[in-house]
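Work Package 4 report. The design task specified in the project plan requires that, given a folded chain encoded as structure tokens, an amino acid be chosen for each position. We show below one input record used in the internal validation round.
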């Protein structure tokens, strides 16, 4: 199962584009520098008044489907 570890720091005002649906995908870079694109909807449980900040783990199946995001 592929696993991608990365850090996100998205201020609340920047997250509004995702919340409003103007941006549907998030591009992050893993700790090794690999780009990872995933649905912005996966971030909803992690939104705070300050935005989204922290270390995350994205896992998916072998075909890169069924993505699941967790805070590390």
């Amino acid at each position: 199962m592929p696993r991608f570890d990365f850090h996100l720091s998205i201020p609340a005002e920047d997250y509004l584009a995702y919340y409003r649906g103007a941006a549907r995908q998030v591009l992050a870079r893993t700790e090794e520098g690999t780009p990872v694109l995933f649905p912005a909807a996966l971030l909803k449980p992690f939104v705070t008044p300050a935005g989204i900040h922290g270390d995350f783990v994205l896992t998916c199946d072998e075909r890169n489907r069924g993505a699941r995001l967790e805070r590390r």
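The first strand starts at residue 3 and ends at 11. Validation will be extended to a larger panel in the next phase.
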